[in-house]
Amino acid sequence: MHFMEYDSPVMSTIGKIADMIWLSILWFVCCLPVFTIGAATTALYYTGVKTIRKGRGYVTRTFFHAFRINFLSALGMWLLGIAAVVLFYANYIFIASIQAGGFRFFMTVVYSSMGFLVLSMACYSFPVLSRCSMKCFAILRFSLELTVRHFPYTLLMVAIVILCTVLMWYIPLTVFVVPAAGTVLFSFCMEKVLIRYTPESEKGKWFAE
């Protein structure tokens, strides 16, 4: 039975699904301490593209390799993200207390736009970190540039992130497949952007060993 052979399309598909489930579990477990979410998300993207899409390496080894080498930079960006969320939450409480309807609407639009910008930059920051050796603030500046320059892709990637978050919030069991599956889908947009900034000599190498 050819479909049961190791390299058959059926077995390859089953293997990819198993890898996505295991990668999602690794991401979820490594996110539990909370302060490690940035490093876990960076490793999730790195592993999703390198191992699941490109078929290079093993999920566990690749994930923890990326987790370890990017930990400090990812931690810095994640802490900045938490600070931004706290600030936005405090401002929304302030907006809710405003009596003037017109001014309240204006401020809501302003802070919602800023929140969208922060989320968009986060969508770029962790994948960029997984691919480039750059300082934290250099990554954030580059992510802001990518957010504006590739706005159609930005909208699509933000929509994917929001959809995955909603699925995991309302259907908790999807946390065992959605993180990796969503990352693979997300990467089809992200890689179209990143390849434009990859030197010609490196375009055949998706990831450094």
In short:
The protein is mainly α. It has helices spanning about 10-30, 35-55, 60-70, 70-95, 100-130, 135-150, 150-170, 180-195. The model has no long low-confidence stretch (mean pLDDT about 85).
SSE inventory with pairings:
Elements: H1 9-31, H2 37-53, H3 59-69, H4 71-96, H5 101-131, H6 136-149, H7 151-170, H8 178-194
Structural notes for this entry:
This protein is an all-alpha fold. Helix content is 76%, strand content 0%. The protein has eight helices and no strands. α2 (37-53) packs across α3. The two termini are 37 Å apart.
Q: Indicate the radius of gyration in whole angstroms.
A: 19 Å
Percentage of residues in DSSP E strands: under 5%
Number of helices: 8
Question: What would the average pLDDT be, to the nearest integer?
Answer: 87
Low-confidence stretches: none
Can you count the beta strands? 0
- Succession of helices and strands: HHHHHHHH
Q: Could you state the oligomeric state of the chains shown?
A: single chain
Structural class: mainly alpha
How much helicity do the residues have?
over 70%
* Main sheet attributes: strand count, strand direction, barrel closure: none
The coarse silhouette is: globular
Distance between the termini: 37 Å
